[in-house]
Amino acid sequence: MPQVSVRIEEGIALLVLRNPPHGHVDRVTVEQLGFALDTIEANPSVFAVVVTGGEAGVFASHYSAEELEILSRHLRMTKQSPGEDPLPVATLLAHTLARIEASPLPFIAAINGTCIGAGFEIALACDIRIVEDDGYTLGLPDANLGLVPGAGGSQRLPRLIGQARALELMLMGRTVSPVQALQMGIAQEMAPDLAIDAATIMAGRFADQYRPATARLKQLIRGAADLPLAEGIAAERAAFLALLQEDEPLARLHDLNRGERDIAD
After folding, report:
1. Which GO BP terms sit in this record (predicted)?
2. Nearest to residue 34, comparing CAs of 85, 86, 90, 97?
3. Is residue 259 predicted with pLDDT exceeding 90?
4. Contact between 60 and 119 (Cβ < 8 Å)
5. Which of residues 73 and 165 earns the better pLDDT score?
6. 4-207 topology per CATH
7. 259: left (phi > 0), else alpha (psi -120 to 50), else beta?
8. Distance (Å, rounded) from C-alpha 30 to C-alpha 92?
């Protein structure tokens, strides 16, 4: 059974992470995640992606400690420079998560269990995170192993919840409960039952969204923290004017003016 699988139904791609028994991310997971994104990107019918765990109580766990121990011993033996890249798979994971962020499609993480380390980094790269209220934890406890995150977690978490809170969690190697994740702003929604059900319902709402507008919104919002306000507003203005010239927004404006469409959801 593959560690990452994709099923596409009615425009929603369900991307399932599975590596029993503990759900650790490893080299195979990372490679298959990239292939899964290739499949999704090649299908023009897809308008939203839901990412979830395929094992009970696990979304995705930390990166394989066995692989990291082998790498650690190899680095000590070869005295390889930290500036070199002895672990291409780590670079590949970072690149793959950047693909999720840059995708024109909305990615929703349906967090249905343990979500720590590399698994949490996958969730952080998604646009929306929905949690289940169950007995599991989320976070980046890498400091407890004398390490730091390896695929962007130390950069994404502060952008999400602020530097002070991120420092507290990561320096102490703390994980949080689903309720705490919701309160801190790590998750946007708590599912009343199963996260996958709530995520699928939310994904369905993107069926009527204009994909170029969704893509531009992702670019604008994700880039907002890195741009001076004036530059961000200029980028927004350029996107607004570009979309005004396209057929679909014009048709929707026409319908709105004729009373055949409501701007509210």
Report:
1. fatty acid beta-oxidation
2. 97
3. no
4. yes
5. 165
6. 2-enoyl-CoA Hydratase; Chain A, domain 1 (3.90.226)
7. left
8. 7
Count the helix, strand and coil residues of the chain and give each as a percent rounded to the nearest 5: 50, 15, 30
CA distances (Å), origin 186, targets 123, 168, 221:
10, 14, 16
Q: What is the topology classification, in CATH, of domain 210-257?
A: Lyase 2-enoyl-coa Hydratase; Chain  A, domain 2 (1.10.12)
Confidence of residue 10 (pLDDT cuts 50, 70, 90): very high
Q: What is the pLDDT of residue 169?
A: 95
Q: How far apart are CA 38 and CA 230, in angstroms?
A: 35
Instruction: Please answer whether residues 126 and 108 qualify as being in contact, where contact means their C-beta atoms are separated by less than 8 angstroms.
Output: yes
Peptide bond into 21 cis (omega under 30): yes
Q: What pLDDT digit, counting tens, does each position of 189-199 carry?
A: 999 899 999 99
- Report how far apart, in Å, the C-alpha atoms of 115 and of each of 98, 122, 232 are: 19, 9, 33
Query: Which tens digits make up the pLDDT trace of 72-88?
Result: 787 777 766 655 555 56
Position 20 scores a pLDDT of 83
Tokens of 175: 């994980």
Please tell me whether residue 11 adopts helix, strand or coil conformation.
coil
Q: Backbone phi, then psi, for 124, in 5-degree steps?
A: -65, -30
What is the domain partition of the chain in residue ranges? 4-207, 210-257
Higher model confidence: residue 48 or residue 88? 48
What does the alpha-carbon distance between residue 69 and residue 27 come to, in Å, rounded to a whole number?
Answer: 14
Question: Exposed e or buried b for every residue in 1-31, given b needs 16+ CB within 10 A?
Answer: eebbebeeeeebbbbbbbbeeebbbbbebbb
Q: What is the mean pLDDT of residues 55-68?
A: 89
